[in-house]
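Morning, I've got a small favour to ask if you have a moment. I've been staring at a protein lately and its backbone has me curious. You're getting the sequence in one-letter code plus the fold written as tokens. I've dropped the whole record in just underneath, so have a look:
=====
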Amino acid sequence: MNFGYCVTGEGLEISKTFEICSQRTDKAENEYIVSLNVTNDWGNGFTGEIKIQNLSAEPIEAWRLNFDTNFTIEDIWNARLVSAEANSYSIANDITTTPIAANETKTFGFKASKENGVTAEISNCIVKGVTINENFETLDLLETGLVLTAYAQYNQDESAIDIYWNTTIQNGKFEILESDDNIKYSKLTETSDFMFYSYKITENFSEKYFIVRQTTNDGRTAEADSILISNNGNGYSVGFPDSDNDGIPDYLEKDIGTDPQKADTDDDGLSDYEEFYLTGTDPTVYDSMAKGISDADADSDMDGLSNKEELNIKTNPLLEDTDKDGLSDGAESLIYGTDSLKYDTDDDGISDGDEIALGLDPLNPQTFDVPDSEYIFEVDVPSDTASFADVNTDTNPFEVSVKMKAAGNILSNLDARESLYSNAMTNDATLGICPEFIYDEGCKIEEAVIQFKIDDENAVEADTKKAEDSEFYTLFPLLISVLELGNQGISTAFSCISDLFSNTVKNIDIYEISNGELSKASKKFISSLCNELSKVATQKYSYSGNGEAHYIYEYYDDWYMVL
């Protein structure tokens, strides 16, 4: 930790030592109560909240809670996870939960997984807080080093160059030196009262250099890096000298160890600027990437192109795939002839990498005489697909897979996640989360079948107090997913895999809550959905307008269904 300070006034002395007077200490057991409240339990997972009540007369500042559990925390809010090891956790406050005032309670929430049938518990709770006491830890004050920096700006109104400087020791004298060649300097003026000097331009010049030099009261000296002033035809530009014109100013070359008088210090075929800023190689070593191979011929990102070749075609020598289209820069340049700086070379709406994966021509927007973005592929997307990982979790009691007929690369562009409406639709009969599926908007979808596989042992019975039939299972997650994709124009609705399914579905109403008449596509979709449901249900299914449903879930844009 570093900190600075400013001392003002007359006859003041700089402190020689500093003392830290705050530390984190354990609160006494009788000064707090920690309690756990489970807000929603679905067998092998739950959401809950932990409350910390301050029983003392003093606030608990910057608290930290250590405790043991019989569950695994997966997400947390209104607090920060400091550490977790073998079901032992250390949790710290965030800005919303500190301090805990006297007789006040602060709460943070979390989501966790556990074994089926286990009651969530916490134990061995210890609350810590930051306290102020007199057991000071003393730090010696290091001697301040002398550092002097200077900069300038062109003052057009006054026809002057305004020079400013900063120093870590504000005493002594300051000299302003001038040069026409950055070699031989002469003194313009000297001052001890100001940290500013204005150089009046009495006649035009091509280039001038300025240096500020300081001598402190105790005899130490420092010199700021030289400043370059150049005539640009419309006034003057301010910068720093770059003697070898390699793009790195001389002062920085001194810091990184390169030669300010030589554009390519190590003679490896790359300028010092290219190595320092672009390729990540060492500008002072000829073969810093691979022994015996110049850094120009080396391949920093292993994409098949040398660093020099990448600089020539303006790709990033540190990124294998500069345009992020799924093809390496080398493959695009040497094999496919596509533009390694353009995600979609033929502008057909499909990335170059996806076109190669699908057997399309990335240089022809109509490979098979129809637009590539409309050419249909049929693909089975299995449940273990990486993009389904947020839905097909260990804690979710069902898993989904999808059969699709669509344009584009289905495997790389189809994504699944928990719906934004999941919390609003959760009730005591809900089975798992409500997933939604996202697909590339630029590609046509012809048909999709969403498959839900529900394990018998994870099937959740409805709360008998809130449902007429104890064997009732909600179809919220299934139907929400279907409708999410249905809004993209899919004609075939869904499929469900479960031995229990035909015995558990009792009644479902589908409500259309958007303004205006049903579109032709929407009617066709709802009709298809109802026909499928009628095969396993004992009652008819209907859809109609319903203002009350709209009021309850007013943020849902299109279709909504209730049980």
Summary: Confidence is low (pLDDT under 50) at residues 459-526, 532-563. The longest helix spans residues 520-534.
